[in-house]
C-alpha cells in the first residue's frame, strides 16, 4: 500500500484534532459528574442532563452541519466550529449553577456538530480504497482514544485542581488545529446545496422533548402531563422530521442512503454498539467513585487499557478491513465486547480492580479495536465522495443519538440508583446491546463495491 502524501498526512492530522475535542469533551465529563453534583447539586438528574444537553444538540445539529459543510466548505465550517467550541468551553468552566452549566453544554454540542462531519469528509474527499480505510483507522485510533483517555485526564483535573478545568483541556488542540488549517492549502469547495434549516430545528426540539421525558419520568412518573406531553410532542416532531426527509430535495438525512446495504446495516449496528459504549463509559466513570469510593483519577485510569489497545490496533484493523472486508471484524469485535461487559459481573462489595475490572477492560479494548475502524470504513466507503459530508453526519448522528437515549434511560436501566445491583444491571444491558450489534453486522454487512470494482453496488 502506498504511503500517505504530505497533504494527506496533514489532512488526517487536521481531521483528528477537530474531532478530538468533541469526542474528548463527550467523555471527559464522566468522572467529573460526582464533583459537579456535589458543588452544584441535583444528584443523578443533573448528571444525566450534563451529559445529554451536549448530546442533544450534537446529535440533532450534526445532520444540519453535514449539509452546511457540503454547502459552505469543509475547512470554513471547521474553523467556525473550533472557535465556537472554545468559547462554549470557557462558558461551561465558569458556570455558577446547574442551569447555566447545562445551557453552556448544549452550546458546546452545537459547536461540536460542525466539526465531526467536516473532518471525516476531508478524509473521504482526499483518499479512497485501502488508503482511505487506513486513514480512517488512524483517525479512529486517536479520536476513540480521546473518548477513552478523557476520563483519566478529567480525573486528574478533578482531584488536583477543579472539575471546572476539565472543560478547558481542549484549548490547546483547538489552537493547534486553527494554525494547521491556515497552512493546509486544501481546496475548500462550495456546492449549490440548499440547507434545510427548518428540519434541523424540528429534529433538535423533538430530541430535546423526548429526552426530557425519559430523564424526568423517574422523578414525576409517566402519568404526569409534564412528562407524557413533551414525550408525545417529541415523538411527533421526529415523525414530522422523517416525513420531511422523505420528500425533500435538500434532506439533512437522505433516506435513500439507507438503501445502500452497508450504509443502512452499518448504521443499525452503530446504534447498538455506541449505545453500549455510552452506557458502559457512564457507569464505569460514576460507579467506581460512588461505589468502591475510588478517586476521580483512579476511576479514569480504570479504562486506560482500552485506550492503549485502541492506539495499538485500530489502524491495523482498518487496514485489515480494507483487505479482507469489514464483516468479520464488525461481527467478532462486538461479540468480544459483550463478553467483556459480562466480565464486569464479577465486581462485588469486596472490590478488586485487578481481578474484577482489568480483565473486562482488556477484552473490551480488544473488541473495540477490531470494531470501530472497520465499522466507519464500511459505512463511509459505501457512499460516493459527493455525499461524504452528509453520510458522515448521519453516521455520527446515529452514534450520538444512541448515547443520548441510553443515558436518558439510565435510571430505568439501573433501577433508580447506581449501586452494585444497578451496576450489574447496566453490565447485562451493555452486553446485550453489543451482542445485537454483532448479530446485525453478520446479517447485513458485505464488502463495499469499491473493494470489488467488477460488482454492482449492493443495495438492501
Could you tell me the number of beta strands? 0
N-to-C order of helices and strands: HHHHHHHHHHHHHHHHHHH
Q: Which stretches of 5+ consecutive residues score pLDDT under 50?
A: 452-460
Rg (CA only): 21 Å
Mean pLDDT: 83
Fraction of residues in H or I helices: over 70%
| Alpha plus pi helix count | 19
Structural class: mainly alpha
By CATH, the architecture of the largest domain is named Up-down Bundle
Approximately how much beta-strand content do the residues carry?
under 5%
User: Do you know the CATH topology of the largest domain?
Assistant: Growth Hormone, Chain: A
Largest sheet: none
Write the topology of this structure.
Layout: H1 6-28, H2 33-40, H3 43-72, H4 74-93, H5 98-112, H6 116-126, H7 129-160, H8 171-184, H9 197-220, H10 225-247, H11 261-290, H12 296-301, H13 304-324, H14 327-343, H15 353-356, H16 358-380, H17 388-408, H18 410-414, H19 420-444
